[in-house]
Design brief:
This protein has about 300 residues and is of the alpha/beta class. The chain folds into two domains: about 5-110 and about 230-295, FAD/NAD(P)-binding domain, CATH 3.50.50.60; about 115-225, FAD/NAD(P)-binding domain (3-Layer(bba) Sandwich). Helices cover about 25% and strands about 25% of the residues. The protein contains eight helices and 18 strands. The strands form five sheets. The chain has a five-stranded parallel β-sheet with strand order 3-2-1-7-18, with helices on one face. Helix 6 (about 180-190) links the parallel strand 11 (about 170) and strand 12 (about 190-195). Helix 1 packs parallel to helix 2. The longest helix has 22 residues, at about 275-295. The chain is elongated. It starts with 5 loop residues before the first strand and ends in a 7-residue tail after the last helix.
């Protein structure tokens, strides 16, 4: 491939969808893949439109990757360490190499705050510890569910899970003053355990959480409500406008506050959902294509 017109930072569902769209718009696209997007943790999703029997995160990514490559996108392993402006364009610094591009799409996602407990990664891979009740809360129907939180976010997630089960327990591991909704938990029938958690033990298809006063409790699954951190450093260093939660602010076309810089997926404020990320990517890719057409002098570009 000759020099790319568009650099996409991130090879998750948003980045790969945008690459497919831009490839079909006959744009030269480079996707920078830093490895292990958040979707690769999904053991089986029943929340992905078009897959009623469910589909795994790795399978979703494989299919999307094949499709992007089919339309000419280049996918290169590596990490963009820095983005710089170069007049009306950008320079991405990747593994010491400088790559110029007319436009950049950030699809860098977020990092989950997993509990610092032995065995937690294996538990996530087995879907015994989960991170997204919107994605798979339905599968928790009538099960014994624990919510692990350190703030009122845990209480809000526990309240949401009452949609599916009347056996919901909130394990609050943060300071007492960070849980202000204890009365609401009691009203909803959510048991609250305020104590540090020391371990997660897997036993067949259940989770045994240990660590408060020598007691142990078994749950069918545990949701971690410890939050996320957006991977927005590249845009922040350029001076792009961020929301209060650190995610990127974008307009209705997924454009950031900096001309030539777009963003889609979990790094943007909104639901952390594959369906949302792919929709945002389609909007962003179309706007990028039209913006480049206008820059090239097309009088009708939309």
């Amino acid at each position: 491939m000759s020099a790319p017109e568009v650099v996409i930072v991130g090879a998750g569902p948003a980045g790969l969808t945008a690459a497919t769209y831009l490839g079909r718009f006959r744009r030269r696209v480079l996707v920078v893949d830093a490895g292990e997007p958040r979707a690769c943790w999904i053991p089986l999703s029943h929340n992905m439109p078009g897959f009623p029997a469910g589909v795994s995160g790795p399978d979703i990514l494989r299919r999307m990757r094949e499709q992007a490559l089919e339309y000419g996108a280049e996918i290169r392993p590596g990490r963009v360490e820095r983005l710089m402006r170069d007049e009306d364009a950008f320079v991405a610094v990747m593994d010491g190499q400088r790559i110029g591009a007319r436009a950049v799409l950030l699809a860098t996602g977020v990092v989950d705050h997993h509990p610092d407990l032995p065995g937690v990664e294996r538990a996530v891979q087995r879907a015994l510890v989960r991170i997204c009740p919107i994605c798979d809360g339905y599968e928790a129907t009538d099960k014994a569910v624990a919510i692990l939180g350190d703030s009122d976010k845990g209480a809000r997630e526990a309240a949401f899970m009452r949609t599916y089960s009347d056996r919901v327990t909130l394990i609050h591991i943060g300071p007492a003053d960070r849980l202000t909704q204890a009365d609401e938990m009691a009203r909803l029938g959510v048991e609250v355990i305020a104590a540090p958690l020391e371990a997660v033990r897997l036993e067949q298809d259940r989770v045994t959480a240990l660590g408060w006063g020598g007691q142990s409790r078994a749950f069918d699954l545990v949701y971690s409500a410890l939050g996320t951190s957006p991977n927005a450093e590249l845009a922040r260093d350029l001076g792009a406008r961020l929301a209060a939660d650190g995610r990127l602010e974008v307009d209705l076309h997924q454009a950031t506050s900096l001309p030539g810089l777009w963003a889609a997926g979990d790094v943007v404020r909104g639901l952390n959902q594959i369906a949302v990320a792919t929709a945002e990517a389609a909007v962003a890719a179309t706007d990028i294509h039209n913006a480049l057409r206008r820059a090239d002098g097309w009088t009708v570009a939309d």
